[in-house]
Specification:
Number of helices: 8
Distance between the termini: 80 Å
Strand content: 15-25%
CATH class: Alpha Beta
CATH architecture: 4-Layer Sandwich
Largest sheet: 7 strands, mixed
Strand order of the largest sheet: 1-2-3-4-5-6-7
CATH superfamily: Ribonuclease Z/Hydroxyacylglutathione hydrolase-like
Length: 302
């Protein structure tokens, strides 16, 4: 007699890490988006306020968003009052499918970017994650961020609309604790990703963050930074090195495969996903660098 075999239910096990007064971080896996991690690779922040829980980013799927909402209520004793999205990438945004669009907040630039590009990520996410994504359909933010700060109950958050990791990045500063929630403008002990990167604008944004009077940093990926500057400096160091290394590879005539195998400096040797992100960055940035630096033989030089 055949015995039916049932797959174990797909469940996100969210472990909140206390990082400040009424603030918790859920650490994402320091990996690519994989079936084994359900796409839960981004750091998510939960903040208690007297008006309700505040979330910064929502994870990759409806299933994740539902688990996140339940955890936020368990930790704070209140329902979610606001969900801030830091940028367009689906490991941060698609969990917003679990929330009322009226409480989802984004900058006007991000809202336009999500309308244009957000639905296009769905095919790739469903292909990568399959049933983890069941029922997931991204919600457009219904709360545009137009002020320099927003207050929810007994907390005030400084809004920092920036760019560089993407065309529309948002960082938030909790003024009570000095906790900077930086989204993917900052990575920590995990190599930065560059699918929509503009490196000069990213440097400018990092300079802005560096000048803030904050105490600690929640990066978009990697461990919580208990200092104000270590993760910001490391992110800047990586993108400066990457920019110079890829430029040299073009000037030396390396093809994309060769560029993707370039040596990793010892100071980055322990950084998670370093080789993976170098190879991705070659695919993202190399063709443009070649176009800029290698003259075409069918065009006259100026």
């Amino acid at each position: 007699m055949a015995v039916p075999v049932f797959a174990a239910p797909l469940t996100y096990r969210l472990t909140p890490i206390p990082i400040g007064e009424g603030i918790w971080m859920i650490a994402g896996a320091d990996e690519p988006i994989l079936q084994s991690n359900g796409g839960a690779i981004a750091n998510i922040t939960i903040i208690a306020t007297s008006a309700g829980a505040v979330l910064v980013d929502a994870g990759p799927s409806l299933r994740y968003g539902e688990a996140l909402a339940a955890l936020a209520r368990q930790l704070t004793g209140k329902a979610v009052a606001r969900l801030y999205l830091t940028h367009l990438h689906p490991d941060h945004t698609y969990g917003d499918a679990a929330f009322d669009p009226a409480i989802i907040a984004g900058t006007p630039a991000l809202i336009e970017t999500l309308k244009r590009e957000g639905p296009g990520f769905a095919d790739g996410m469903y292909r990568l994650l399959g049933d983890w994504m069941r029922g997931t359909e991204i919600h457009m933010p219904g709360h545009p961020i137009n002020a320099r700060s927003e207050t929810l109950g007994d907390r005030t958050f400084r809004m920092l609309p920036l760019a560089g990791h993407s065309d529309a990045d948002l960082a938030l500063l909790d003024t009570r604790t000095g906790t900077l929630i930086a989204g993917d403008l900052v990575f920590h002990d995990r190599a930065p990703s560059t699918p929509h990167a503009d490196l000069p604008r990213w440097r400018t944004s990092l300079d802005t963050l560096k000048e803030l009077r904050h105490r600690t940093v929640v990066p978009g990926h990697g461990p919580f930074d208990k200092t104000p500057g270590a993760a910001i400096d490391q992110t800047r160091d990586w993108i400066d090195w990457l920019d110079a290394a890829l430029t040299k590879a073009v000037d030396d005539g390396l093809d994309m495969v060769e560029a993707g195998t370039m040596p990793i400096p010892p100071r980055f040797a322990a950084m998670k996903a370093a080789r993976y992100e170098i190879q991705r960055s070659v695919s993202h940035l190399y063709a443009r660098l070649e176009d800029e630096r290698l003259p075409r033989v069918d065009r006259p030089r100026n």
